[in-house]
Structures are given as C-alpha cells and as structure tokens.
C-alpha cells in the first residue's frame, strides 16, 4: 500500500498568484481580473481544500481506517463540490 | 498547470492531519481540476450578469456567500484574517496609513 506519510510541519502560506492568474486566463481568455481578486480565489481554494480534507477525514474515521483512501475522498468530493456551487 | 495544483495537494495533506494514500491524492487533484472549472464559470456568470468584463472583488464575495462560507455571522474580513498571512491581509482589508490615506483605495 503506497502511503505518503510526509506530513510537512511547515507549509508555504504564500499564494501561487501567478499560477491562479494563468489558469483563469487559460479558461476565460476574454475576462480580466481586478488587482486583489486572485488572492480571494486563493482563499476560496483554501477553504475548499479545508472542507474537503475535513469531510474525507470524517469519512475515514467512520470506516475505522487509519489512512485516507480513494473512496473517502470520492464521497467527500461529491458532497463538497455540490456545496461549493456558485 | 499540474505543478500549481501540487501546492493545494500539499495543503490537503496538511489539513487532513492523517496519512493519505497516493491514489487519494490523485483523486484530490481531479477534484481541484473540476473545482477550478466551476469557479471560472461562476465568475464569468457573475460578471456577465453585472454587465462587466472585469471580475471584481464583489463577485468573489458573492461567490463565497453563495458557497455558504461568508454568512451573516462570519464576514469576509474574518475569513481573510483567519486564513491569509499579513501581507495579503493588508492588501484586502482597508487600513489607514499616515498622511490621511486608506489602502486599498476604495
């Protein structure tokens, strides 16, 4: 079983702003982003990831599993993607 | 593009506080891909509704409100303070500086 056990103690808090702008431009070439909007997109992604992680953790706990497996993420994703519709 | 997503995958394994399988991480990547697609479509719809070609901060706030993240009890500024580091907070929350100026300009 391939498990990535690396839980990094320190993570970068910096937002990948250029990446966010680039992806947005790729998807919607005709739209412009205001100056600080990419930061709020980053915040949005952060909260999405947070919710996804919490949900999949509770799923894993319910199944009495010590590691998060693919199915846990899948069921969590269904719920959270539905919640984060605009 | 994939390199940028890996940042959020790292965040996932940080927030989950549990070991994560490799396959599960791939799943997370797929989710993020889909999520970005939805995000861009929503932003396009919001700005088109307002008759703009620029995505403004209001659109993002509306999106957060629709997602149930910003509520009457939890405002946007609270979320920014909780999750973003100081240098970004200064860019987002109005803050008075010397010389009778407020940044960012409203």
UniProtKB/TrEMBL annotation, chain A:
GO terms for biological process: cell division; chromosome segregation; kinetochore assembly; mitotic cell cycle. One of its GO terms (molecular function) is protein heterodimerization activity. Component of the CENPA-NAC (nucleosome-associated) complex, a complex that plays a central role in assembly of kinetochore proteins, mitotic progression and chromosome segregation. The CENPA-NAC complex recruits the CENPA-CAD (nucleosome distal) complex and may be involved in incorporation of newly synthesized CENPA into centromeres. Part of a nucleosome-associated complex that binds specifically to histone H3-containing nucleosomes at the centromere, as opposed to nucleosomes containing CENPA. It holds the Pfam family CENP-W. This is Centromere protein W. It is found in: Chromosome, Centromere, Kinetochore; Nucleus matrix. Belongs to the CENP-W/WIP1 family. GO terms for cellular component: inner kinetochore; nuclear matrix; nucleoplasm. Keywords: Cell cycle, Cell division, Centromere, Chromosome, DNA-binding, Kinetochore, Mitosis, Nucleus. Gene3D superfamilies: Histone, subunit A (1.10.20.10). It comes from the Eukaryota. The gene is Cenpw. Heterodimer with CENPT; this dimer coassembles with CENPS-CENPX heterodimers at centromeres to form the tetrameric CENP-T-W-S-X complex, which is a subcomplex of the large constitutive centromere-associated network (CCAN, also known as the interphase centromere complex or ICEN). Interacts with NPM1.
